Amino acid sequence: MSAGATFTVDPHTCLFHASTRQNAHIEGGTGLFAHASGTFTGTVSPEGLLPGNPDGSCAAGKPALHEVDQVMLNGTLSL
Predict the structure, then answer these.
(1) What residues does each domain of the chain span?
(2) Tell me: the pLDDT tens digits for 49-71?
(3) Residue 31 burial class via C-beta count within 10 angstroms: exposed 0-12, middle 13-18, buried 19 and up
């Protein structure tokens, strides 16, 4: 479940930065994790380069040419 998000694009360079804060709840799984449970909070922060359109604008609806994602979570997991 997302708890808030931001997205910015520099219109001159097409570099973007996004951030979303998330809360997660784990109940069950498979194999060794069949009885897993826990809660986590964290952020996902992608940064990258969007392709350009022929008119020089940024193509925000197309996949990024390059992207690096930072994922940080904090929580507990019981098995």
Answers:
(1) 2-78
(2) 999 999 999 998 899 999 999 99
(3) exposed
